[in-house]
Amino acid sequence: MDSSTPSIELGRLLAGSAEEQQRAGYADTLREILQQPQTWRDTAALLAGPAAAAILSQALISRPEYIVLTGSGSSVHAGECLAGVLQAALRIPCRAIPAGDLLTNLRGMLPPGSGLVMSIARSGDSPESAAVVDSILAAAPACAHLVVTCNANGRLATRYRSEPRVRVLLLDARTNDRSLVMTSSFTNMLLAGGALVQSEAYAAQTTSAADVAQRLFDRHADALAMAARKNFSAA
Fold first, then answer.
1. pTM attached to this predicted model
2. CATH H-level, domain 26-199: superfamily
3. Which of 175, 229, 186 is nearest to 76 (CA)?
4. How many C-alpha atoms does 69 have within 13 Å on its Cβ side?
5. Are the C-beta atoms of residues 28 and 18 closer than 8 Å to each other?
């Protein structure tokens, strides 16, 4: 926190004991929101490392004809955010499709040909997430798979270790949000998915974004809290 411009609201919330924060229902959520700038920096460092770089490059080595981004709940919204970016950079069709739609209508939803299926999943442990990968492996063997997840113990991270068509990009365990809402998991999975097509400047751009976010928390948390308390009907 920037001590020269302390946030009254954050100070009040953080002053509560762990037990008080849990009773009030914000302990995990607040921590996960505030950890985002640092976890972005850490994710950028991870993505710049040789292991992650190899996973990302191998995902595109077969020159996919399309990319399908899939997930459940908020995870598919991350795919929607990424689809346009990937399509513009790779010049191939990129589309976000909910895991449930693929599971119930795979023949109708999955494009023909050889593609890349990016499964985006915070826990990677929902039954439909693994079921979608299983179904596509069987029905479309030419497709490659890239799993982006925050949970080393989830099905998506552990089930396909001997399957060469599935590559797993595992993020820091801190991003495996415990609260009901997805905050640091959502933004860090976005960063990881975007790295599929980003240049060497990506790490510097991520660090810059993290610095801006930290200043926002440090200097404008009270204004954000005030805005959140206002009556509104749509975001």
1. 0.90
2. Glucose-6-phosphate isomerase like protein; domain 1 (3.40.50.10490)
3. 186
4. 28
5. no
